[in-house]
Protein: ABC transporter ATP-binding protein
Amino acid sequence: MEQPMAIELIGTLKQGRRKTIGPLHLQVPKGYIVALVGPNGSGKSTIMKMIQQTLRPDAGEIRWFGQTISEVMPVELRQQIAYVPEAPESEENHMTAERAAEFRSHWYPSWDEELFEALMDRFDVPRKERLNRMSKGERRKFEIAASLAARPKLLLLDEPSSGLDPFAWKGMIDELREFMAGEDMTILIATHVAEEVKRLADYIALVHHGQVLGMAEKDQLFSSWKEIWIRSGGCSPDDLPEGTILCVDGPSVTKLVVQEQHEGQLQRSLADKGLQVMQTRSLELDEILQLWIQGHPPAKPATEAAVV
Ligand SMILES: Nc1ncnc2c1ncn2[C@@H]1O[C@H](COP(=O)(O)OP(=O)(O)OP(=O)(O)O)[C@@H](O)[C@H]1O
Structure:
């Protein structure tokens, strides 16, 4: 059976003055957390805004839960989506947290006041403070609490941890995991925080220069490459086995980076040459993304659930 999608971008394009974002192709499977990662200015926020319809694409298509919309998004659909933008919207600036929550409770039929109160307590957000007088972190915590209390089917989070202290950050991670325990919840999160990706994401989509380069399942992504250190001078870039893409010769060690499925082959080839492996490690997220941007995507799994 085909996997249902919460969001589909099909050749979606926004033409800016300086940059074009798109044509974008992305599928966000229902019931999962997809992390949008990529360098500054690559288009992550623009993707979020187009999904939220605060920004209209100039070309292409967006499908929300399989639905295409020709004009304005119907209220019933909008009420299923909550959005925490990178910078808070100004309309509620002069409201207290309490008043803004009341305003939102009328908008979202599934608003959960009990959850909102519990989150405000947990995050220690002042209820009677006007939103524009709150600290950056307090405002962020209010936005996260209110977005979760709306109990949306789709939650769009644009760099949600920006400004959060480590306790609030941990609280947010716990709450988002709790949120996902519900049925059919989907989160699209734009983030630069590797730990957030590790703890939350099911899939990771890489955005670069206004394109989605691809999407990979998290565990598969994190185990896609291995770095192997051997003593210098022991290998030449010309005789490296398949899947070995780098050979950095330092004064005393040579680092090889190899696709996980070819690691055994590389190890055997090194052993045949009498070369001893000094150290092996998995690559960090930033290193994996850098390789991907350089044209070395993670290897695809034998069976793909939802990869672009
Ligand atoms: N309304 C718009 N129409 C067209 N282009 C826009 C619009 N808003 C922003 N852009 C451009 O799109 C590019 C991508 O910006 P965007 O904010 O989406 O990047 P980002 O990946 O979220 O970056 P960051 O990681 O720094 O938050 C920028 O060069 C920006 O100038």
